[in-house]
Design a protein that fits this description.
Elements (H helix, E strand, L loop, with lengths): L10 E4 L1 H6 L11 E5 H11 L6 H15 L4 H6 L1 E2 L13 E5 L16 H15 L5 E4 L3 H9 L4 E3 L17 E4 L11 E5 L2 E7 L11 E4 L5 E7 L3 E6 L2 H5 L11 H11 L5 E5 L6 H15 L5 E6 L2 H5 L8 H5 L4 H10 L6 H11 L2 E3 L13 E6 L6 H8 L7 E6 L15 H9 L5 E5 L7 H9 L1
Parallel strand pairs: 1-2, 1-5, 2-4, 5-6, 7-10, 13-17, 13-18, 14-15, 14-16, 16-17
Antiparallel strand pairs: 3-4, 8-9, 9-12, 10-11, 11-12
Helix pairs in contact: 2-3, 8-9, 9-12, 14-15
GO cellular component, one term: cytosol
Protein name: ATPase
Organism: Alteromonas mediterranea (strain DSM 17117 / CIP 110805 / LMG 28347 / Deep ecotype)
Length: about 475
């Protein structure tokens, strides 16, 4: 069991969904003690052999706990095994991990007597709260209803898992650009400009934008200036002058930007030095259409990449590829209709739209893949379009990003207002985590697309519903 009545440390009881969200979550509580109820191990055992996408996360979590506990005696596991030395840096754990045999709890110790898994886990937290008072006992779960039940049953401290939550509110999420009030040059006190080939680069004081990050776009309200932060030193920012009109003049596969957000997105998408582009924004802002247009431009017109791989988060298909007849691509078509819709838009003025689409899909070697089958692959010299990524966790996104080999460009799109996952919110989504973690990486760019350009109907719905 945890250290008796230590008011300096807390006891964290973890729910199953925490270990599925982040398999190594039990290592994230620093000097505090972690308790895993036996019910959680039972649930992990059931999930690890299932066909669900989270089965891998369950197996990873079980192996990680086994690595720590494999030499422990049954008494040690119940008493708590130190996690000291398992991590590095300030976040390294120094508390203990213990297994609570809640299946053996006598009925007099149980608040909930019904034999549901959630109730048994809450019973453990309530029992520990009573046993170790005044030490804080915290139940950590992503299940909102379970948090309400636990509080209603008398548990004082119930929390969501916040270790991978990098912002407190979605309004603080990096947008990928900064807009200066008035004219940009009026706010510049000193500047050193130089020309490199066809590019003009300005060196300005960092005090103008202390929180700037690499590949952040700079705009002004007068629509006269547009730049891109290329390098950051202790005192200065190196800004590439893009020119507002030149930026708005970018085009790909016959598509021209309808607003400055789309123009910035196109610039990042067509830049061969940027390995990952993250596009966020409301439905109808043009994320998928821009990604596909830029991909076709770079594959077919410029021969920069060999193929386009399209994949997306599909909660239904993640559990099973299904029994629909046909190849993997044919089974994925219902979930990737957004891509075929966009392809149709790009070729709607052709004499034979369907013929053009089939020709381009073959010419550009467009492949539809399930997220399930992305694991274990090494994708070389391709463009990977990952759509609807707001429903993925940080660990799921990591497994996809690490598939990208040499010469591969990843385009990640998502709308944080349309999260379907039971246990994710806008601030805990893997897409939010990705934006914040990669915002200062020189090989990535983030663009938040403002404004719905799909139709006036879609625009009104986005603003008023």
């Amino acid at each position: 069991m945890p250290r008796k009545n230590s008011t300096e440390t807390k006891i964290y009881v973890l729910d199953t969904n925490i270990l599925l969200h982040e398999p190594h979550a039990f290592l994230s509580f620093k000097e505090h003690d972690v308790v895993i109820p036996m019910t959680v191990l039972e649930e992990l055992d059931y999930i690890k052999d299932s066909k669900k996408d989270v089965a891998r996360d369950a197996r990873v979590s079980i192996r990680a706990m086994e690595d720590l506990l494999h030499d422990a005696t049954p008494e040690d596991m119940l008493a708590g095994v130190s996690m000291d030395g398992l991590g590095a840096g300030q976040t390294a754990p120094s508390g203990s991990l213990s297994i609570f045999a809640d299946l053996n709890m006598v009925e007099s110790q149980q608040v909930f007597t019904s034999n549901e898994n959630d109730n048994r886990i809450i019973n453990v937290a309530l029992h520990l709260q009573k046993t170790f008072a005044p030490q804080k006992v915290v139940l950590v779960t992503k299940d909102l209803n379970m948090r309400l039940k636990a509080k209603g049953a008398g548990l004082a401290h119930v929390e969501d898992y916040r270790t991978d939550q990098l912002i407190t509110d979605i309004k603080y999420l990096s947008r990928g650009f900064h807009t200066f009030e008035g004219n940009f040059w009026e706010s510049v006190k000193s500047v050193d400009s130089r020309t490199e080939g066809r590019d003009t680069i300005h060196t300005i004081p960092k005090s103008m934008l202390p929180e700037a990050y690499v590949n952040e776009f700079l705009l002004d309200e007068t629509k006269q200036f547009a730049g891109l932060v290329e390098e950051i030193t202790d005192d200065h920012l190196e800004v590439l002058d893009l020119g507002y009109e030149r930026l708005m003049g970018r085009h790909a596969w016959g598509i021209t930007p309808k607003n400055i957000g789309q123009a910035m997105a196109l610039h990042a998408l067509l830049d061969p030095h940027i390995d990952m582009v993250i596009l966020t924004g409301p439905a109808g802002s043009g994320k998928t259409l821009l990604a596909l247009a830029a991909a076709l431009e770079m594959v077919v017109e410029r021969n920069m990449y060999d193929k386009i791989i399209v994949t997306r988060s599909t909660p239904e298909i993640a559990e099973s590829i299904g029994f629909l007849p046909g190849t993997e691509e044919e089974k994925m078509l219902p979930w990737l209709a957004a891509i075929t819709d966009s392809l149709e838009v790009l070729h709607k003025h052709d004499e034979n739209t369907k013929g053009s689409m089939n020709y381009i899909m073959e010419k550009a070697n467009i492949q539809y893949k399930s997220v399930n089958f992305m694991r274990g692959r090494s994708i070389q010299n391709a463009i990977v379009i990952l759509d609807e990524s707001q429903n993925l966790t940080a660990s799921q996104l990591k497994t996809i990003i690490t598939r990208c080999g040499e010469g591969t460009k990843l385009i990640v799109g998502g709308n944080l207002a349309q999260i379907d996952s039971n246990y994710l919110s806008a601030v805990t989504s893997g897409l939010t985590y990705l934006v914040e973690k990669f915002k200062d990486f020189s090989g990535s760019a983030t663009i938040n697309l403002d404004g719905v350009v799909r139709s006036r109907l879609a625009s009104f719905a986005e603003e008023n519903l």
